[in-house]
Amino acid sequence: MKPEFYERIGETVYRRTLPNGLPVNVVVKPGFARSYAFFATRYGGMDTRFQLDGKWLDTPAGIAHYLEHKMFDTKEGNALQELAKNGAEPNAFTSNAMTGYYFDSTEKFEENLKILLSFVSVPYFTDESVAKEQGIIAQEIRMIEDDPDWQVYARMMGALYQNNTAKTHIAGSVESIREITAKTLYDCHKAFYTPGNMVLTVVGDVDPGRVAEVAQSILPAQSGPAILRDHGTEPEAVAQRTTSRKMEVSMPQFLLGFKCRPAAAGEEYLRRSLIGNMACDLLLGESSPLYQRLYGQGLVNASFGGAFEMMPDTAYLYAGGDSRDVETVAAEIVKEARRLAAEGLDSAFYERVRRAAFGAMLRGLNSFENVAVSLTEGYFAGYDALRFPQVFDSIGEGDVLAFIRDELTEERSALSSILPK
């Protein structure tokens, strides 16, 4: 495998693309007893429409998450139990754009890696087991739908986006999962769980060459065709400006979302992510003038905060929390963004935020899981996640200010609120 040394962060990554098209990344951590393996497919909750064998398929909302649940089933039993017997701690997750399976262990790493690669690449479903899972996931969906935190977020996404499948609930609905059969699961596995659409990343004191050999010996010799996806054609305008619902809450809670322009794949994607996150901290962070003013006036409490999110064809920034005067706080957020755009940033504050953001990414290198997921997300989006120091160097105060001026406008905003009954 070919090593690449990143001098500014002191990390080395061994990379190889197998003959079947699977990229393998190994970050060697000498002297560590723990090893972490992450096997992911570029397939998530928003990938409900895709092309397979020359035909466009529309699949039920929630199928990627459903498939994740069922992938642990094997002819012999359950892969989770098998890994646990070997001393591993396995799990999986589904996001909007990715499904990942992973384990960490301090012993029997190679044996556990073989189990991981085997059950993820060889599906085993029956109509009976699929039907049984519907009840389990339906109960999970009902619990989530009764959660005000989920409701305020889901309604914000529905207000921001008209057609984009980013607004689709990852778990689907009780109605949509009833349409899922063993055949639809096999079709989705065939389309997305193919080596050319997946990445294997390992972090630990392991032999990189041996990791690649194990993967090549277990996985299919060839990959399937490239996948065409349709996430929906989305206009720049938000779907609606406000949405609200009454629930059993003691205080109103809200999210104010801003529909941002998505970034193209490649290093610009990482650059845009860094800019958006710094803009979020400058506008909404605990040290920001806005936060200090709203908190001092009793309009927000410690729940107030925000985030910037990106996924394929999608980007949005949101702010929210609890407040007894939701509309005033939302108006103040928009007003502060407008003030910053007109007056400019405080250079000293900007430099503190920039250093804090860079430091957080450096600290993230201490987490095996963070390193593996970041490398995987970067590969799927066309950039090298470990080049973040160089990308930081390319960002100036004017870039962040332009983001605030162009993206965080009233016209691009939508307010979602949950009010007490």
User: What strand order characterises the main sheet?
Assistant: 1-2-3-11-4-10-9
The whole-angstrom Rg is 23 Å
- Strand proportion, as a percent range, falls in 15-25%
Shape: globular
Low-confidence regions: none
Description:
Helix 3 (109-121) runs parallel beside helix 8 (208-218) and helix 9 packs across helix 12. The longest helix has 19 residues, at 127-145. Strands 1-2-3-11-4-10-9 form a seven-stranded mixed sheet, with helices on both faces. It has a five-stranded mixed sheet with strand order 12-16-13-15-14, with helices on both faces. The protein has a two-stranded antiparallel ribbon with strand order 5-6. The chain has 421 residues and is of the alpha+beta class. The chain has 15 helices and 16 strands. It has two domains: 2-218, Metalloenzyme, LuxS/M16 peptidase-like (Cytochrome Bc1 Complex, Chain A, domain 1, 2-Layer Sandwich), CATH 3.30.830.10; 242-420, 2-Layer Sandwich (Cytochrome Bc1 Complex, Chain A, domain 1), CATH 3.30.830.10.
